[in-house]
Design brief:
single chain, about 290 residues, 12 helices
Length: about 290
Amino acid sequence: MLTISFANRFYTADGWINADAVLDDPATFCVCVGGRGIGKTFGILKAVLEREEKFIYLRRTQAQIDTIKLKELNPFKAVNDVCGTDIVSGSLGKYMGGFWHSNEKGEAIGNPIGLAVALSTVSNIRGMSAEDYDIVIFDEFIPEHHERPIRAEETAFLNCMETFNRNREFQGKPPLKVVLLSNSNDLDSPILQAVGALRPLDEMIRKRHNYRTIAGGNVAIYRYLDSPITAKKKSTVLYQVSNNEDFSGMALDNEFSKANYENVNRQDMKQFQPLKQPSPEAHALN
């Protein structure tokens, strides 16, 4: 296990997440969990655009992919507004969306620089080839509590990665880099389980660690603690009036609402004996 406390691995000089550190991490899978609005999605999309890397933007459901095709909900909108870039989103068929550079009229030009795909429907896209793409950005991979689960979500994710990678490693190519981004909504995540990060992240929460590598360095877990942006957000009106401790803990302090360890401790189960159930005769006597 490797634990790192250097701030520049996590945050830039102006307080946003250090996306370049994630993209330069040698791990194939980078799990990035943090509070809301600290620049996770913005930073990664901006960095991928600056590096001119072709990408696949992955969300959990088809409804989410259909939504980001709208101009107003294009995930690059904030990047365009801040950086003066020109990325537009649109449709590439029933199940797939795409991202393009645009002309002065806001019309897509050239070939897509990225694809947009839903985990729930990727199996419907037959023969999809991702050999020209460099990175998968799985945005909001941990659903909020009100969202419906996907049946066999863990298996669906692993099959999705198999579809994207095919046999590229047999051809001497590196595997696709996979960056998983989420707020700390719920520790019970099939995707965390799929990449073997559930128990390690559980241990990181207990010990308040912020970085760890597992699976021989193939998986890196970033847990964004003490965000400078979060410190500023605490003084905003929403968080001054909010009485919802779960929401504030998730959004500000990167706390998983269902991960309360106040009365929980790990023990060696060999030292315990199961309670014997009373016999029917004993029940009758009572």
